[in-house]
Amino acid sequence: MGVRPLNSQEQNRNDTFCAQFHGGGRLEIQNFNQPKQFGYNVVFEPEASQEDVFDNSGMKKLIDMALNGYACTALAFGQTGSGKTHTMTGPPQQFEGGKHPDPDMVGLMQRSFTYLLQQAESVAGNKVIRASYLEIYNEQVIDLLNPNQKRYLQVRWSKNKGFYVENLFVAECESVDDLMAVLEEGMRNRQTGSHGLNEFSSRSHSMLTLTIDTEQQDPDDENLYLTKRGKLTFVDLAGSEKVKDSESSDMTLKESNNINRSLLVLGNCISSLGDPKKRQGHIPYRDSKLTKLLADSLGGNGVTLMIACVTPSSHHVHETINTLRYASRAKKIKTKPIVKMDPREKLILSLKREIKILRNENGYLRQQLEFPAKPKGELQKSNDEKFMKFLKTQGKETNDPKTNVKGGTEEGLYEMLQEYMIENESLRTENSEMHQAKDKVKREQQLMYRENERLTKVIEKLEREINGRSGGGNGGWQRQPNGPPPQRQVNGPPPPRQVNGPPPPRQSGGPPPHQNLPPEQYYDQGPPPPRQGGNKPPPNNQWKGTPPQRPINNRPPPDQYIPGPSPQAGRGKQSTPPGGPKRPPHRLADPIARTANIPPEYIQNGIGGYPDDGYMSPRGRPSPLHNGPIRQESPARYNDSRRSSQVSTSDSIRSMNAKLKQEIYDLEGEIEHHHNVNQRAKSIYGSQASMRSGPR
Ligand SMILES: Nc1ncnc2c1ncn2[C@@H]1O[C@H](COP(=O)(O)OP(=O)(O)OP(=O)(O)O)[C@@H](O)[C@H]1O
């Protein structure tokens, strides 16, 4: 809010000074002894200098925002002769006849030019400032930088730009002098007139617009430069006037009517925008060219500084109160400022951001699945190169407006956008595959955990069995509370024991060893293989000499199994392999290997967990001691999983699983040994008894 001093006319008329200043933006107007209070952000008293106005109006902040890509507007409004032009440009007389303006009197616009150029220098990257200057006179748009053009300019609307003036001359400005020249040229061409209230009255609304393109480095990508298009518009409205007071002639009467009509529309827009209920409804921007061109500044995504100018004269108190009410309504308007960018660059940026997020996600998933980091793909490389090329072309286009490279750029841009979208899509697909694979691995881990728990129980049961047989004394062994039996050699023979010693006391009435164990707990299908000799003692006449005994120490450990079918009846189609029947592999020996899903070349190469040393388990599957592949399903993973780490959670669970199986295997051997000793002892005992009870 700016209150100018009383002018000579007002002083001569002995008008009273009707404004009182209470500080903190509070202003009181004496309306025929009825005080009216108003509050604003800042109130400039008549003594305030032009510098004070520039420093304290928030103009500097507005310029900084424009440099950062926001659309900003400084707009002066108020009654005719209230000091709008004085505030915006300094005294209007200074532009008369090429006079050199007094530096202390220059207004907000000239000061802003200087500040803008200073600030622009401190911003890194390329900057381009362009200026246009127009006026709306009698509801017609005139280019103030190209006044010879006889035609009035059209106000158009586009989805991207909003309302804009077609064919407006735009001057590129590199220095403060260039900007000053634009201002002076426009001010010279502006429609002014003289009337009863102002000798140099503006008869039109003027708009000087600076577009500020700043090319700045993307904080997320040092190779990426983004162009932000900030806008700074200075609006000096024509003043509202009472035709009676301004003593308008025919010509100025028409001007006054147009001015007042457009200001009325502006007032309607401001009151609708300032009312939260009406704001959601229709705002009558289209009712005047002024409001069309101010639509974005008022209610869109811009930031607007409104400077209401009033005279303190009691003679004009009514207009002053109107202006102050107008300003109070305008103060309530809330806009949503956003950074303006080239829509194509914006799209590229959003795609690039999405790609970055997807790449990060991809990297994270790869880490989780222990795949090696993906090298920069061809598509990705070419996209990045194309984008850099595009930016360079854009730069050339900017520097040389005559060069018509737009067609080529458009084509390249379209192609690049398409490729970005393809890359995006492929990353999305790959990521979703990896998510699925991750879920699968998790499920498999859970299965393994469960199986290990079960195997541990089997082992405990077998241990109990052995301890029961060996009387729980020194002959038996105890599992350490945590972990596998310490003394046992996994691939070696069982601990030494007296093979030919007395049979261990058998639990009376207990079943033979294997009858204690539910075979389905640890065998793949069907019952365990028939033991040589069976569980029952053979008839005496069939057993000659040493009873058949399984050579415990010669029994092949599980990792020496050779490929071959199960010796069980009905299961193996081949004959029993040399070296005696082999135990069938445990049904959980390799619960998750799915050879059917593995591509042949993957197996042939011996990559990805299948050993290529020729070792196979009894049924042609990898040994439980080897890590089997678990992630063959996703084709994207064939190549990547080749160097996958051996220390994954899955692998450690799997190796635990293998150890447990080995233990079970050994324990079974031990039980079998006990069983044989038992049988032998019984047969000896039986033959002695028969000798004792024989015919005397
Ligand atoms: N703060 C001020 N200090 C000194 N003189 C001022 C001040 N404000 C305005 N004036 C003077 O008052 C006169 C009218 O001001 P100005 O032309 O800026 O009014 P305006 O609001 O632009 O009027 P119009 O709407 O008719 O164009 C000018 O001579 C100007 O120098």
TrEMBL record:
InterPro entries: Kinesin-like_fam, Kinesin_motor_CS, Kinesin_motor_dom, Kinesin_motor_dom_sf, P-loop_NTPase. SMART domains: KISc. Residues 482-516, 526-540, 548-566 have a biased composition (Pro residues). GO terms for biological process: microtubule-based movement; mitotic spindle organization; spindle elongation. The keyword Transferase does not apply. It is found in: Cytoplasm, Cytoskeleton. One of its GO terms (cellular component) is microtubule associated complex. Residues 644-655 have a biased composition (Low complexity). Keywords: ATP-binding, Coiled coil, Cytoplasm, Cytoskeleton, Microtubule, Motor protein, Nucleotide-binding. ATP binds at residues 78-85. Residues 678-696 have a biased composition (Polar residues). Residues 417-465 form a coiled coil. Residues 466-655, 674-696 are annotated as: Disordered. GO terms for molecular function: ATP binding; microtubule binding; microtubule motor activity. Residues 1-333 form the Kinesin motor domain. Belongs to the TRAFAC class myosin-kinesin ATPase superfamily. Kinesin family. This is Kinesin-like protein. It comes from Magallana gigas.
